[in-house]
Amino acid sequence: MSPSTTPNWPGESRASMALAFDVDGPTGDAMLNGSIWQKPEYFGFGAYDPYRALPRILDLLDAVRIPATFFVPAWVVENWPRQCQAIVERGHEVAYHGYKHESFYALELEEQRQVMEKCREVFWKVLGIRAEGFRTPSGDWHTHTPGMLLDAGVIYSSSMRGDDRPYLVNVAGHSRPLVEIPGHWELDDYASLAYTKGPNFPSGLDRTASYELTLDNWCREFDGAMDEGLCLTTLFHPKITGKPGRLLLLERLFEHMRKRDDVWFATCRDVAHWTLKEHGND
Ligand SMILES: [Zn+2]
User: Fold this and answer.
1) Percent of the chain beyond pLDDT 70?
2) Each residue of 153-175: pLDDT tens digit?
3) Across all residues in the chain, what is the average pLDDT?
């Protein structure tokens, strides 16, 4: 990559690490179709996320002094308010991730607006914040979603896969662009560590990957992205990696990251504001 296409970063930093977790809890397809209310075991698998795993992740982040962004469906904020308030109190960012993890691709524009309005209401009432970020649940959206997000006061999204640098999405009829901070499946803990039954994940119920190999993969992704001066974000889920054995894996990953002194550890919100400023949109 030529230097001209590599982003600039604050101060002496040559790359940026925007650690992010999706705190889905029990929201998702099974809640949207109502089947989760007949599946207490599966509900508990999801509820473990805000109830047990999130506090553990917050303690670890305190210890390693790395800021993070938490994309949280508003239903989770409503039902585990104290755990979600702790994210904000401890200096991290909370951002939008649907109300019950709706697929925005499947919603009409007006339905998307209603979901965002509900999210804004809950975040304001329970957390006292207006979030600036959004990660689309279930991976895709409509062509009119970026404009709807700008209307809802969102300045950035972390939903796409097509680059490893933040970029601007210009939307007709809007004076400000939407910043996109793309993520990658390589940094999604579901790809190597998720395992559930009823519904089955992975669908063939293969075994999870070795923790050693997973750590090695993640460290290599970090090294490669930092060497190229890019912005790396993660699609981690506390209910997958916020368990005692896996926390040790995260601890080693963060130790590896902290060895570098040329990396800007930032929330996605900070990366978005920086990107807007760099492009003369502050
Ligand atoms: Zn999610």
Assistant:
1) 98
2) 999 999 999 999 999 999 999 99
3) 95
Distance from the CA of 267 to the center of ligand 1, in angstroms?
18
Tokens of 227: 């060497």
Domain that holds residue 156: 3-278
Which residue has better confidence, 1 or 69?
Answer: 69
Question: Could you identify the residue written with the tokens 């972390």?
Answer: 158
Give me ligand 1 centre to Cα 94, in Å.
13
* CA of 101 relative to ligand 1 center, distance in Å: 6
* Number of domains composing the chain: 1
CATH of residue 34's domain is 3.20.20.370
pTM, two decimals, is: 0.96
CA of 80 to the centre of ligand 1 (A): 16
Strands, E assignment, the chain:
15-18, 20-22, 69-72, 93-96, 133-134, 156-157, 167-169, 178-180, 231-233, 263-265
Write the CA distances from 204 to 161, 185, 195, 208, integer angstroms.
25, 19, 10, 11
Q: How far is the CA of 231 from the centre of ligand 1 (A)?
A: 20
CA of 183 to the centre of ligand 1 (A): 13
Distance from residue 30's CA to the centre of ligand 1 (Å): 13
Residue 235 CA to ligand 1 center (angstroms) comes to 8
Q: Which residue has the tokens 């809007």?
A: 174
